[in-house]
Amino acid sequence: MVSAEAALLPEPETVMAWLSEVPDPEIPVISITELGIVRKVRHQGETLVVTVTPTYSGCPAVSMINLDIEAKLLEKGIADFRIEQQLSPPWTTDFLSAEARERLREYGIAPPIDGTAADGRLMARANRLAGGSNLVIACPRCGSGKTERVSQFGSTPCKASYRCRDCLEPFDYFKCI
Hints:
The chain is an alpha/beta fold. It folds into 2 domains: 4-85, 2-Layer Sandwich (GMP Synthetase, Chain A, domain 3), CATH 3.30.300.130; 101-174, no CATH class. It is built from 5 helices and 7 strands. It has a 4-stranded mixed beta sheet with strand order 4-7-6-5. A 3-stranded mixed beta sheet has the order 1-2-3, with helices on one face.
């Protein structure tokens, strides 16, 4: 027999839809679900459990993301919940949705290049980490492939600074993690 309280618990899909309204605090044009850091929503008895994987350990936005999740759940009338952090498997840029990648580009941030995340399968990644690069990072403003890395570190730790040699505009590249 299902208790009256259990019958009132929202479905995980409903909670994911609510959380899709929560913007990433560092890149407000994409949500935390599009970013792929909300890994799972489930019920443990009467408690709603939201599992989150940060983009990298030590990410300064984690506290803000947890507060935003808490605020959204309270707004929706959920008082009995827990936010868990899951570090394994680690987050990679492969978790970004196609929509999020396009919104990054429209916002002026070059999205990560497909298949270049740190999954250990690509020898080219080792080359890039050693300072070499065969990647062409297209300018999100004019589309040119004539770009150059200015710094491995951009406006946030998950981005690198680039400059377009055609339109001369600086831009961030969302690094493959």
